[in-house]
Amino acid sequence: MTDIQARWRDIRQILRRGGRSTGHFAIASVGGDGVPNLTPVGTVFFRDDCTGFYFDQYTCGLAHNVEVDPRVCLMAVDSGSWYWLRSLLVGRFAAAPGVRLYGTVGALRPATDLELAQVRRRVRALRLLVGGRRLWSDFHQVRDITFTSARLVRYPVMMAHLPQDDSIPLTEPETS
């Protein structure tokens, strides 16, 4: 089992928090000319096996870059106001505020029925709005992402109580 596989459950908790608080993930890529590009993608989904996929709908720069160099970095940061306010009040983060995942993107392919159901479920309420229907009615192609390593977003003075070497756990145990 690789290091990322051993930590994947905790990494997914951070990804959920980050995705929920911002509505998207940032995916960095580099084009053939060496120019970096950062793309916000709201339709990223994660599987249990250190992989994921995203709908390649509004990602022109990213789509072009991964054809040249499939390596990417996906970042999720919990930017929720309550998370930050609580952390600032107590002087520490209860859990890592974010994570960077490094990996490679696969070729464009048709979305499966299961993948289409996942995106429809995520945007269901938003599709009741005119803009929501315009934005999220025509998804049909995805790209797979295979993640090979991870690195936490760190603020050392607020994270001294958490492991300093990206080891397990990435989050504090939940109390009931």
List keywords for this structure.
176 residues; alpha+beta; eight-stranded antiparallel beta sheet; 5 helices; 32% helix; disordered C terminus
Describe what you observe in this structure.
It is a single chain. Strands 1, 2, 3, 4, 5, 6, 7 and 8 form an eight-stranded antiparallel beta sheet that branches. The chain has 176 residues and is of the alpha+beta class. Strand 1 (25-30) and strand 2 (36-41) form a beta hairpin. It is globular. It has helices at residues 3-22, 60-68, 81-90, 113-123, 130-136; strands spanning 25-30, 36-41, 44-46, 51-55, 71-77, 98-105, 109-110, 141-153.
Blueprint of the fold:
Elements (H helix, E strand, L loop, with lengths): L2 H20 L2 E6 L5 E6 L2 E3 L4 E5 L4 H9 L2 E7 L3 H10 L7 E8 L3 E2 L2 H11 L6 H7 L4 E13 L23
Antiparallel strand pairs: 1-2, 1-5, 3-4, 4-8, 5-6, 6-8, 7-8
The count of DSSP E runs of length 2 or more, i.e. the number of strands, is 8
Please give the alpha-carbon distance between the first and last residues.
30 Å
How would you sum up the major sheet? 8 strands, antiparallel
Shape: globular
Q: Low-confidence spans: pLDDT under 50, at least 5 residues?
A: 167-176
Tell me the helix content: 25-40%
Brief characterization of the structure:
Strands 1, 2, 3, 4, 5, 6, 7 and 8 form an eight-stranded antiparallel beta sheet that branches. This protein has 176 residues and is α+β, with helices and mostly antiparallel strands.
